Amino acid sequence: MCGLVGYIGDREATPILLNGLKRLEYRGYDSAGIAVLQNGNIDVLKRAGKVNDLETLSALHPFASTVGIGHTRWATHGEPNDQNAHPHVDHTGTIALIHNGIIENYSAIRRRLERDGIEFKTDTDTESLVQLISTFYDITGNLEQSVRLALKEVDGTYGIAVISSREPGKLIAARMGSPLVLGINDGEYFVASDASAIVHHTRQVIFLEDGNIATLTRDGYEVKTIGDEAVEHKIEQITFDIEQIEKGGYDHFMLKEIHEQPQTIMDSMRGRILKDKGTAKLGGLRDVVSALEGARRIIITACGTSWHAGLVGEYMLEQYARIPVEVEYASEFRYRSPVLTENDVVIAISQSGETADTLAAIREAKLRGATVLGICNVVGSSIARETHAGVYTHAGPEIGVASTKAFTSQLVVLSLLTLMLGRTRGFISLDEGRKFADELLSIPDKVREILEKADEIRELARQIHTANNALYLGRGYNFPTALEGALKLKEISYIHAEGYPAAEMKHGPIALIDENMPVVVIAPQDRIHEKVISNIQEVRARKGKVIAIVNRDDSTIEELAQFVIEVPTTVDFLSPLLTIIPLQLLAYSIAVFRDCNVDQPRNLAKSVTVE
Question: What is the domain extent for residue 543?
């Protein structure tokens, strides 16, 4: 959600900014722009549309500048058009600013400044901030101090970068609730909302904390608090390679990431399974094992796909570790005055580690005395820093907006946590633990086997891609899989789809079923297999098109369904790791047949950093 990049050094800024914005396209956006310092002026190019459109415009208006900022905007305040695109410039034309986040008290600031005679040109909340900085600059004559004073009056979230033609050798960046990383190289410095924008230029980075302000010049950098106090900071190394954020020969990032799952699932397990002992070791949790083992209950909080992973985790932990578990939407958790005690453990799940609602839930839980853990994919992210302990999923960069490999990696971590707690709490025997460990280690090969059916699934997609609605049904561990499968279809194909517990179909959704309705039924041969068969019969009686995800040699369902996709067998709590794969491929292929923008679906953002 929004992308930000800035540069100061000795090289041409424009190519660096445009390249950085391209690396940030996966986050979701509807307009793009850059501002550079040139010949004592600020020059701005911005327009609604894609970075390629901005690049074309830039070729017509070349800049010779070594300082600049660039932005991709996901609209919140004001429609996506050229005028509302970032960067925004103050009324004097000497200060330019880019901003991720939301200024909640922008309207009060705007009214005050308009009374003072300042004319606003956009509908955005961001313009209020750049105009406010400008008024302080008239008083202080110092850009850093003016930014600091303005931010003291701001309520909301921000990751910003600011330049001024009156101080052309300086770039100011600040963070509150929206991720920001500094890049350090010999004689040049970068700022970005995501390390992927700058990894091509440097691997040395500093992750800014909330309330930090950084001043970058060609001679170096300085990090302080909003209160003007020096901040100790750690220089870290980016560990992923540039190849990991490129398509590698695939048509789309989503397809590449679906096919990476045998590797990412293994990476999420690597070094964590103690096969002989039938258990798992999660080093990031070593300091909180006693809190986990003695927890009164576990609350899992997340959003979107991560929430679906949390639902599977609820089933796992309650069945095999015998700990009561609740799964909460993070966006609701903080606002409903949750009852928490020091004996509760809250687990926050997020791919990016920057999801605004999940971060807010973490902070609420910490205030109420709970032990707070994180499961996330991005090293150095806010959730990784703000939780008491946690586990990285090791899925690698996920560029496609619709999450795939991050979801299965989250399921692996929850499986390992279940195995560890089930063994230490005495609810999983040594023999069971060894069996579960073997099954976990076999999952990557079983996923490869499913991926070999991609052509078969593509043909199915061709036959049903014109549908307007779809229903996904599952029971037990595969009810959350149904939710996730439906979400994938909605996200990238724009087909209305709903996931339901199969038995709940009779309580409303059955009214929608007719001969035009594809009904995807997830039906592995588990203890409730017979119940799912009854639900399939109910769909058939209404002439629905049954697409069944089954285990091999399930002749009963093969006779009932119009389409069957086979997946290998595994133990019950690991089945979502397999049944989700054909649903990811199905959604992808349908979206391709419908000529949708698979990697950047409309209105969506990869990292949701606003509430």
Answer: 453-611
| Claim to verify: residue 165 and residue 89 sit in the same structural domain | yes
For residue 275, indicate whether it is catalytic: no
Angle at 553 (CA atoms; ends 547, 555), nearest 5 degrees: 65
CA distance 261 to 450: 11
Catalytic residue among 22, 46, 488, 606: 606
Domain final residue, candidates 450, 466, 491? 450
Please indicate whether residue 405 is annotated as part of the active site. Answer: no
The structural domain count of the chain equals: 3
For residue 13, the SS3 value is: helix
DSSP state of 497: E
Q: What angle, 0 to 180 degrees and rounded to 10, lies between the N-to-C axes of helices 430-451 and 261-269?
A: 160
Q: Which two tokens stand for residue 242?
A: 């540039």
Alpha helices in 205-343 (DSSP H): 253-259, 261-269, 289-293, 304-320, 330-333
Closest to 406 measured CA to CA, from 417, 420, 392: 392
Q: Which of 150-164, 370-384, 456-470, 508-522 has the lowest mean pLDDT?
A: 508-522
- For the purposes of burial, counting CB atoms within 10 Å of the CB of 142, is it exposed (0-12), middle (13-18) or buried (19 or more)? middle
Enumerate helices (H) and strands (E) in the chain, giving the number of each: 19, 26
Better-predicted residue by pLDDT, 603 or 488? 488
The answer to whether 547 and 520 have CB atoms below 8 angstroms apart is yes
Exactly one of 2, 303, 376, 596 is catalytic; which is it? 2
Instruction: Please confirm whether the linkage preceding 87 is cis (ω < 30° from 0).
Output: yes
The CA distance from 41 to 35, in Å, is 10
